[in-house]
Specification:
Helix content is 50%, strand content 15%. With 285 residues, the protein is of the alpha/beta class. It has one domain: 2-enoyl-CoA Hydratase, Chain A, domain 1. The strands form two sheets. A six-stranded mixed beta sheet has the order 1-2-3-5-7-10, with helices on both faces. A four-stranded mixed beta sheet has the order 4-6-8-9. The chain is globular and about 60 Å long. The N terminus is likely disordered.
Length: 285
């Protein structure tokens, strides 16, 4: 993996917990590791560094013999607010930045599916973009009642990439997946549980404890039984990898078009977007 072209994106290879700048680690005993996404000042939005760390962390967890199960949550009042706007802006003007994020976004999906040890997500607030990918690619997802989940790409003017095409149809069915991914509409915690997008929804003050309880139960189980069951079930998701690859490529292609620039401006100006393709009737196929 080549070093990042952007300052602060971190080392090309991560081999130890100390290599991570925006993830905090706490061994909770009994084989459970709590991983906290730690940029609370920006609602844990993913810049280049964090984006790369969210893909790199799972091989480090797998190599830690003291860990049987990991729990991932967000610091403060959000799980992750999606992509850092400065990073998104670079992607609208810099081909190299797009290539970098194409690689790192794909790495999150590949690494989480390839991680032998179970992952439990404790979604404590808004989850968008790369953060949502981590939340929903987790083997068990526990969300707070106040949580709000959105793939959000369509609102920015790019195709749903990251993770959603691979797993949303499996989780909540094609009808719901198409609706939420094409509109970018937020899904509340209770609704996410109702449609099967997440495992369960609990009161806000119980979300981390509930995730730790599930993780503890898994950690006390047969490691081979749990890990091999996960491995076998992930074969369903593996069948969607061609669709995922196309979705990710189309997402990245969109960042270099005029709709993404307008979408970014609309977010910054807190207004409804006026996408050029909607006004000209231009087709995307």
């Amino acid at each position: 993996m080549a070093p990042s072209t952007h300052d602060g994106a971190g080392p090309a290879h991560f081999t130890d917990y100390g290599d991570f700048a925006h993830l905090r680690f706490e061994h909770r005993g009994g084989g459970v590791l709590l991983v906290t996404i730690d940029r609370p000042e920006v609602l844990n939005a993913a810049d280049e560094r964090l984006h790369r760390e969210l893909g790199a962390v799972w091989s480090v967890v797998d190599a830690d013999d003291a860990v049987a199960v990991s729990v991932v949550t967000g610091a403060g009042r959000a799980f992750s607010a999606g992509g850092d706007l400065a990073m998104v802006e670079r992607m609208t003007v810099d081909h190299a930045a797009v290539v970098e994020q194409w690689r790192d976004a794909g790495a999150i999906v590949a690494a989480m599916l390839g991680c032998a040890k179970p992952v439990v997500s404790a979604v404590n607030g808004v989850a968008v973009g790369a953060g949502l990918a981590v939340a929903l690619l987790a083997d068990v997802s526990i969300v707070a009642e106040s949580a709000r989940l959105s793939d959000g790409h369509a609102r920015l003017g790019v195709a749903a990439g990251d993770h959603a095409v691979a797993i949303w149809p499996l989780l909540c069915g094609m009808a719901k997946a198409k609706y939420y991914l094409m509109t970018g509409e937020f899904v509340t915690g209770p609704e996410a549980e109702r449609i099967g997008l997440v495992t369960t929804c609990v009161p806000d003050d119980e979300v981390v404890d509930a995730a730790l309880e599930v993780a503890g139960r898994l950690a006390r189980s047969s490691r081979t039984a749990v890990q091999w069951t996960k491995r076998a079930l992930n074969q369903w998701t593996a069948q969607a990898m061609p669709a995922f690859g196309e979705s990710l490529a189309l997402e990245m292609l969109g960042f270099l078009g005029p709709d993404a620039r307008e979408g970014l401006a609309a977010v910054r100006e807190r207004r409804a977007p006026r996408f050029p393709s909607a006004e000209t009737g231009g087709a995307g196929t």
